[in-house]
Design brief:
Blueprint lengths: L3 E2 L5 E7 L2 E6 L4 E4 L4 H9 L3 H9 L5 E3 L1
Antiparallel strand pairs: 1-2, 2-3, 3-4, 4-5
Helix pairs in contact: 1-2
Pfam families: KTSC
Organism: Kribbella kalugense
Protein name: KTSC domain-containing protein
């Protein structure tokens, strides 16, 4: 999946395809969050703090896997 770099102290890059949100963290780990709507991905990119958005709106609600 193609990811785009983001300005965040915790997330290096993000990508979305067919409901899968992929986050590369600054520590090098990559996680995929499943069944994420495109509107949530757009809100993530528009958020003032990507790390805060991930912690409040992604992690508690979507299943994930490390790749």
């Amino acid at each position: 999946m193609r990811r785009r770099p983001v300005n965040s102290s915790s997330v290096r890059s993000v990508g979305w395809s067919d409901g899968t949100l992929e986050l590369e963290y600054v520590n090098g780990y990559i996680y995929q969050y499943l069944d994420v709507p495109q509107t949530t991905y757009a809100a993530l990119l528009a958020a003032p703090s990507i790390g805060t958005y991930v912690n409040k709106h992604i992690k508690p609600y979507y299943e994930f896997r490390e790749i």
